[in-house]
Amino acid sequence: MAISQSPGILESTETVIGTSHSDSELNLFPLRRRTSTAGIQSPDADGSGNGEAVDDRDRVESSNLMSNAGENANEVPSSSDIRFTYRPSVPAHRRIKESPLSSDAIFKQSHAGLFNLCIVVLVAVNSRLIIENLMKYGWLIRSGFWFSSRSLSDWPLFMCCLTLPVFPLAALAVEKLVHLNYISEPVVFFLHVIISTTAVLYPVIVILRCDSAFLSGVALMLFACIVWLKLVSYAHTNYDMRALAKSAEKGNAKHSYDVSFKSLVYFMVAPTLCYQTRYPRTPAVRKSWVVRQFIKLIIFTGVMGFIIEQYINPIVQNSQHPLKGNLLYAIERVLKLSVPILYVWLCMFYCFFHLWLNILAELLRFGDREFYRDWWNAKTVEEYWRMWNMPVHKWMVRHIYFPCLRNGIPKGVAIIISFLVSAVFHELCVAVPCHIFKLWAFIGIMFQVPLVLITNYLQSKFRSSMVGNMIFWFFFCILGQPMCVLLYYHDLMNRKGKAD
User: If we measure between CA atoms, which residue out of 323, 338, 331, 328 comes closest to residue 488?
Assistant: First the structure.
């Protein structure tokens, strides 16, 4: 029996299709539609499709209707199949809906398309700027900034780097002695202080006595600071395990404590700053994955070098000291530097925290690879410092913050102490290779403490994640880093001018 001749269909059609629709009729429309489709869904012998009234998924059901119109894919649906699809009398508006970009719905939508658009626009705009820069200034990259004849003569720094593993071995010897009850706890503490302090001061003295390249000095200081952090964690963790072992003996409980050369070696090369005897391990090394990450590392390192040489160096060389001269000119230089420095900083973060640490973790089968969190969504400056560098954050929490709280130090003072330790090492990593101690990096890190208070207050006052996030991006990336670059560059040029 043909669809148009079915009395059930005619009755259901008369139910759905009327001259007017009140609000109650619109609310009852889905029920009527189900009633109507009950009469429609009776295909005849020749396998023709079924017509349906349109519900909230009009287009989906319409496409399904067209796809199910015949048993064969090539069968063309008859005109009767479309009679009950998008009828003029069927309501097109049935419930309250918000526009996708309205304030109530914008964060409930997927913005993947807009993100892709931003990527395309970013690539197009920066490609034009690169071409314009090359046409205007030519190829400005010079190898002397990275490697020069003086870099080859930096053998004292290289030898210092090779001798740094002596300090972990000395720490292991101390732990062996105390494990065998040959020395007391005060002596252990004194020896570990001497070893860890020497591990930092020794590279500082070598760099200051040698007129080395800036990049070589930064690499050595970073390596020395990492060794110091690992030595502190090694000594502190072993002290805690000894205390637990002694308390377990008194309470007749079992708590293993052992000093192993193998565990120390793995800890010193693993991508972590917190010592423990065992780490989560992955089952195997993905060699092809490592090769792909190495290729990315090389590419992004080249991008950083290109931006530094082609953009940052010319801007800095044509600038004045930001604290001297014309204020408007200094602001213009800072804003002009902000974008390329932001690009370099993001590339540095991606190269080190994502590529290099994951490569190292894969080669060592290190399982915990949470080297960073979504710091770009930080609502406050405090959240940013908790999420962007997870190895240092875990070290600070484990060996600085909570030990301070356990010793009765207030929470605010413990936070200031943590920032103080961070500020000292930031200053060492920048000031020592530059041979300049103006404390710009130290002041910049300590300035984060009032920013933490300000952004926490704004977050609690406005209850909005956007305010704190925008303040973080402005002070940290738009204002802070370009200002530090200009300050250290001009102080370095003034020092070289006086030396000449």
Answer: 323
Report whether 372 contacts 389 (CB < 8 A).
yes
Residue 349 CA to residue 241 CA, distance in Å, equals 34
Contact 120, 284 (CB under 8 A): no
Per the structure block, which two tokens stand in for 425? 């090492």
- pTM, entire model: 0.72
8 A C-beta contact, residue 207 and residue 157: yes
**How many other C-beta atoms are found inside a 10 Å radius of the C-beta of residue 105?**
12
Tokens 């300090």 locate to 167
Strand (E) positions, 14-111? none
Mean pLDDT by 10 residues, the chain (500 residues): 38 38 40 39 38 42 44 45 71 81 73 83 85 79 58 73 91 90 89 93 88 81 93 92 77 66 92 91 91 93 86 79 73 83 89 93 92 86 87 93 91 91 90 84 87 82 72 78 80 64
**C-alpha distance from residue 309 to each of 138, 142, 151 (Å):** 12, 7, 18
C-alpha 454/C-alpha 442 separation (Å) is 20
Distance, CA of 118 to CA of 189 (rounded, Å): 55
Catalytic residue check, 192: no
What distance in Å separates the CA atoms of residue 428 and residue 419, rounded to the nearest whole number? 14
The answer to whether the Cα torsion of 414, 417, 421, 426 is positive or negative is positive
Size (the chain), residues: 500
Please name which of 365, 341, 369 lies closest in space to residue 355, comparing C-alpha atoms: 369
Identity of the amino acid at 403: P
* Predicted local distance difference test score (pLDDT) of residue 77: 46
Note the pLDDT of residue 173: 93
Name the 3-class secondary structure at 281.
strand
Give the Cα separation of 1 and 43 in Å (integer): 9
Q: Which of 192, 393, 399, 426 is catalytic?
A: 426
Kindly give the interhelix angle for 411-434 and 214-250, rounded to the nearest 10 degrees.
Answer: 150
How would DSSP label each residue in 349-403?
Answer: HIIIIIIIHHHHHHHHTB--------GGG-SSHHHHHHHS-HHHHHHHIIIIIHH
Q: Is the dihedral of CA 178, 183, 188, 192 positive or negative?
A: negative
**Cα distance between residue 201 and residue 213, in whole Å:** 19
Which of 364, 213, 237, 236 lies closest to 290 in space, CA to CA?
Answer: 364
Contacts of 366 (CB under 8 A, 6+ apart): 270, 271, 272, 279, 280, 281, 282, 360
What pLDDT is attached to residue 83? 67
Burial of 312 per CB tally in 10 Å (0-12, 13-18, 19+): buried
pLDDT for the residue 494: 67
